[in-house]
Specification:
It contains five helices and 17 strands. It is α+β, with helices and mostly antiparallel strands. The radius of gyration is 19 Å and the shape is globular. The chain starts with a strand and ends with a strand. This is Metal-dependent hydrolase.
């Protein structure tokens, strides 16, 4: 099904029958992705007296309770409420869900201290003068075990503050990355990339300067079959009034 989209006076065609899902699901039947030092998610039938919410165990419906943390267990989208004293809701601030996006692949650069990082220079080299609203960053090497990787205490790659500032200055509103965080795992609470991207790093900023409409989506997985280049992004979120919520970003190749 071919759809024609007019975006900022330009016309594009996408095939709605060929979605490219870049989310990671919770699957308790196997080892799933995990970060931030907490236990794995649980999906269990409700038990009430002699009744168990499982068709296999005699109920007429499956009736499960799910225990998870969006930041630790699943692809999730967060807003500035993730780092502010007042817990702003991503469900409140994300009001549009379809964006012109660019998929890029980057080998993180190794620093002298052993950290692997994404730099401003790397981003500039691939984005150049592209006018986009969202960026999808695939780190290399890209192997499928990212969907089951245990990230706690591994010091994964991260985005340097200079890179986040660059993306903000390009007015990119939605940053998606295949890592547990855009920031260093243990950074003494500085959260340099988060603060830079949402424009909350300067304590003199008033609330009107904060990028409430901007989002960060972490724990995506971009399959190697998806080429770098321009796409339309459908950023679907679950309706939680929380700083972060599980999300299902889906790409559509521009024809």
């Amino acid at each position: 099904m071919i759809a024609e989209i007019t975006h900022k006076s330009e016309k594009y065609k996408i095939d709605l029958a060929k979605p490219l899902d870049i989310s990671i699901a919770i699957d308790v039947s196997k080892e799933s992705v995990n970060a931030w030092y907490i236990d794995d998610p649980k999906i269990t039938p409700v038990v009430a007296e002699n009744w168990v919410g499982s068709v296999e165990k005699g109920a007429v419906v499956n009736f499960n309770t799910i225990n998870f943390n969006p930041h630790s267990h699943i692809t999730h989208t967060e807003c500035v409420g993730h780092i502010t004293k007042k817990v702003h809701s991503v469900n409140e601030h994300l009001n549009n869900f379809f964006f012109l996006a660019e998929v890029i692949s980057i080998y993180p650069k190794k620093l002298e201290n052993g950290d692997f990082v994404i730099t401003k220079e790397q981003l500039e080299k691939v984005l150049k003068d592209k006018k986009i609203e969202a960026i999808i960053i695939r780190t290399l090497p890209n192997i499928s075990d990212k969907k089951q990787r245990r990230y706690s205490n591994t010091n994964p790659p991260y985005l340097l503050e200079e890179g986040a500032i660059y993306l903000k200055e390009k007015n990119i509103k939605h940053l998606l990355i295949d890592l547990p965080s855009v920031d260093k795992e243990k950074d003494e609470g500085k959260l340099l990339a988060h603060n830079a991207f949402w424009n909350t790093g300067n304590k003199k900023n008033n609330e009107s300067e904060i990028r409430f409409e901007a989002t960060i989506t972490e724990f995506i997985y971009v399959d190697n079959s998806i080429e770098d280049g321009a796409y339309f992004l459908n950023l679907m979120i679950a309706p939680f009034e929380n700083d972060a919520t599980p999300s299902k970003p889906v790409l559509y190749k521009i024809k």
